[in-house]
Amino acid sequence: MPPKIAEVIDFDVCAACGACEAVCPIGAVTVKKAAEIRDPNDQGLYEKGAGYQVCEGCLTCSRVCPVVDGFIDNELANMRKFFGAKSKDNAGSQDGGVSSGILKSLFKQGKIDCAVGITRNEKWEPEVVLLTSAEDVERTRGTKYTSDPVVAALREAFEKYNRIAVIGVPCQAHAAHLIRENVNEKIVLIIGLLCMESFHHDVMLENIVPEILKVKVEDVRKMEFTKGKFWVYTNDDEVHSVPIKDVAKYARNPCHHCCDYTSVFADISVGSVGSPDGWNSVFIRTDVGEKYFDLVSKDMEIMEDPKPGLDLVKKLIDMKRKNNAGHYLEVCEKFSFETGIRNEPV
After folding, report:
1. Is there a single domain that holds both residue 181 and residue 107?
2. Do 145 and 267 lie in a common domain?
3. Is residue 280 within 8 Å of 96, Cβ to Cβ?
4. What confidence tens digit (pLDDT) does each residue in 250-264 have?
5. Domain span holding position 15
6. Contacts made by residues 119-128, CB under 8 angstroms, sequence distance 24+
7. Phi, psi of 315 (to 5 degrees)
8. Given CB 3.0 to 4.6 Å as the disulfide criterion, which of 119, 162, 233, 255 pairs with 251?
9. Residue 240: strand pairing partners
10. Residue 345 lies in a domain
11. Sheet arrangement for strand 126-131
């Protein structure tokens, strides 16, 4: 009998987080770049057809799949603290530079050996990387809005390092949480990012930026979603924007089934929504998150009551849930296993 992830792939709701690749003991599955343009009728987009013929039935992949695990109804229920922050060293960062600042400080203090992150080249093409120093973190500054199987890099990281941090969007943070709970305790910190949706990099770079915004990709300095629009800033200081509704339809199909906006399964969640320009909103969710943020707090500026605050965050949580929950629950009815949106704490 194929593992549960086979159905996730068949129904085209695989988030391509890479968790299954990270943990399969026989290396039976590889989430390829081609998975970004997945055809649910073509299992060849996964090496060995997701390992159906060579799978040994351990079902580890099913225990770490965020789609199989499902979603939490109240994603702020485990929030212990909410505040604004910005790194004292945030040059080149998207907003307050908190995510990068946390990693840099922990590397300098010798508290982590490795961090799994994502960088980009001059063409804005993403690349998953293992970071091993504060200097490496500089390469990952700024939000990319395109997806790659970040969690898959843990397979190599587990072989080489003992104290690993993971930074990623909700599906990746969820997967890292499941891996830490079920497979490997070498993950010491999970930093989750707020995310409404992400895009295949070919769609972003070949369609959205050049055709909708009329900007050459090589001229782009920064991209961001804020104030109801998608903004692109160029190297010559031009600013271009379109309403988010004009680009949201181009998001990856799995994103239209996601019901987690704030990375509920992370130790620390970080985003720009809810805080003023130039700051990040920070959500402390676990004992681990509190411990590690305390370690780096000396390198941060703190805003105790940021505005517009949680009201705006809650509005976007509700918006994402309203748009996506029906799609996800419809697919759940097709699964042979039980999952869904559960009313329980993480």
Report:
1. yes
2. yes
3. yes
4. 888 899 999 999 999
5. 4-69
6. 120/144, 122/218, 123/205, 123/217, 123/218, 124/201, 124/204, 124/205, 124/209, 124/217, 124/220, 125/201, 125/205, 126/201, 128/18, 128/152, 128/153
7. -60, -45
8. 255
9. 232
10. no
11. 126-131, 114-120, 164-168, 187-193, 268-271, 280-284, 81-87, 300-303
